[in-house]
Design a protein that fits this description.
By secondary structure, the protein is an alpha+beta fold. 36% of the residues lie in helices and 34% in strands.
């Protein structure tokens, strides 16, 4: 089971946006220039660098409507991802997907037959 560390939890209009991170499974080799990769790996291993996967989720009334993932994030401090535009781009994309999902959910809710629900809940 993965553990996620929360980086951001905020309300944006009717949506709750949560940005968090977890360890990255991808080997840094092949992701960076060969001349730098051993130094990068050493700094990941001694916790100078944070090597992680970023996850952004959008909720409405505790219902997850959208999630976006970005692997291969490398920062000295993971919170930097909140200030350089990377997380904000991911939040924007997740919010766009959430808007579409909320509209579809709203339509489905309007079409629920209350009598059928009552029969199931008895």
């Amino acid at each position: 089971m993965r553990h996620y560390d929360e980086l951001l939890n905020e309300q944006r209009g009717p949506f709750n946006v949560i940005v968090d991170k977890t360890w990255e499974d991808i080997d840094p080799r092949g992701q960076f220039e060969d001349c730098d990769v051993e130094e990068i790996i050493e700094k990941i291993n001694n916790c100078t660098y944070d090597w992680f996967m970023l996850r952004t989720r959008v909720f409405w009334e505790n219902v997850e409507l959208a999630a976006e993932y970005l692997g291969g994030c490398l920062y000295e401090d993971a919170r930097e991802v909140l200030t350089d535009g990377v997380a904000e781009d991911q939040i924007w994309t997740a919010l766009q997907h959430a808007r579409v999902e909320l509209a579809a959910l709203r339509e489905k809710i309007q079409n629920i037959n209350a009598e059928e629900v009552d029969k199931v809940c008895v």
